[in-house]
Amino acid sequence: MGKLIIGNWKMHGASRDLAEADAVAADLARRPSSARVAICPSFVLLHRLAERMAGTAVAVGAQDVHANDQGAHTGDVSAAMLHDAGASLAIIGHSERRSDHFETCDQVAAKVRAALAADLEPIVCLGETLQERREGLALEVVLRQARDSLPDALAGKDFAVAYEPIWAIGAGVTPSLGEIAEIHAALAQALRQRFPNTRPAPILYGGSVKPANARDILALAEVGGALVGAASLKASDFLAIIRAADAAVAR
Ligand code: PGA
Q1: From the CA of 174, how far away is ligand 1's center (Å)?
Q2: How far does residue 71's CA lie from ligand 1's centre (Å)?
Q3: Is pLDDT at 1 greater than 90 in this prediction?
Q4: What CATH number does domain 4-250 carry, 1.20.120.1200, 3.10.20.30, 3.50.50.60, 3.20.20.70?
Q5: Fewer beta carbons below 10 Å: N end or C end of the chain?
Q6: SS3 content of the chain, % helix, strand, coil (to 5)
Q7: In angstroms, rounded to a whole number, what is the distance separating the alpha carbons of residues 163 and 123?
């Protein structure tokens, strides 16, 4: 099955960087990929990017949604607005949201419900800190976050989960392949138990995915795709990761 490769531009990118997305779309038009590909730019670029990506193989997503569909929430953007602007998916509960904005699992679950109500496919992020990993708590923490961040409303819906160890994000280091496989297998089992009649959600790995390590990570049967930060900003790197996903499914 094709992998899901999502670029998370975070607070990077301006008008001129839309050309990077154009280059990704053009390459995928020339040589279609087995992967489903999406780019999540900042709110201010989202509408323009969605217009440029219409009719291409690149979907557009948001990096966050508000839990309400409208109201007096200065500076926030609702899932319905994002859908209206052309988004088809939304990253929710990224560790940078959890740490910068003190988002709790309950709030993440509410945002996931809001995304579903607006027809956005939620990409729900989970991951342990370095200290938790060192104390042998990684699995326990991630499974607890999954339990509390994934609302029952996901039953029967399309969604994805991203395992992103916080200590690997933007750090240039990743867990070992065995460590990634262990967490992904446990998450897959937890999701099967929790949502038995739902199409299995892809479980993405995120945290310093780059062209050099993408193929090995994506070749793990348990890894359904990648959530890519820094390496999604340049078309050449992002495309190399997409092609690594193709190579991983082909072998
Ligand atoms: P990174 O970020 O690829 O730059 O480590 C991944 C993420 O935070 O989604």
Answers
A1: 11
A2: 31
A3: no
A4: 3.20.20.70
A5: C
A6: 50, 15, 35
A7: 10
